[in-house]
Amino acid sequence: MKNVLSPAHYQMETNEDATRQLTELFGVDIFDNPKPVKLINYLIRAVTYDIQNSIILDFFSGSATTAHAVMQLNAEDGGKRKFIMVQLPEVTDENSEAFKAGYKNICEIGKERIRRAGAKIKSDSPLTTQDLDTGFRVLKLDSTNMRDVYYTPQGYTQLDLDGLIDNIKPDRTPEDLLFQVMLDLGIPLSAKIERDGSVFRVNGDYLIACFEKADDALVTAIAQAKPYYAVFRDSGFASDSTLVNFEQIFTTYSPNTIRRVL
Asked: Residue 214 in contact with residue 198, Cβ under 8 Å?
């Protein structure tokens, strides 16, 4: 049976307490009506039974009180709970202290609160929070990375086709492509990502991706690592011969790897 403190035995905080604590964290009164950390802390204790694997989702993140509460609770009981904060980038009033302090929208306040709260939790209890994970990843909802196609084959001219040699939108980064691939393959966006030059490794060698120049030597090195998935960008191959050799290289070194080319 999990030990959950009842409200009668759990010292709650008021909105005034929450405002004071947030002001102390930022140095200015930066957000109206933040939620009390201890209240969210209590609710998390009440509804999560697996302190190692629970994921706490807040669809109206605001100043990211929930993220603060999750990190604080993990520091207290050694849990490994994770959080997902969702917030529209609502702009701050130009006359507000938040705007004057450089926070142009609510999301920026939330991100900075997570950084500051994590640092404070660690500094307050340095001996017991050495392994506390206070890191987070910021993702923004956007349209697909692929170019839009509106015409039937008969509607294209040679000039149109020349512009579609690369089917990726020109403003997209390798990181944009990586996260799209992770979503397509069902890999959690919280997965461990390591980057070595132009090569991304996700969860070790589960997924290896390269969206920039890849020659025969690099393709061979990736194949020799025997990843479960290997993903490349069509226009990223260093030459036509590398594109032609790509399948044969994997057939030789890692035939079971699932290969994809964007």
From this structure: yes
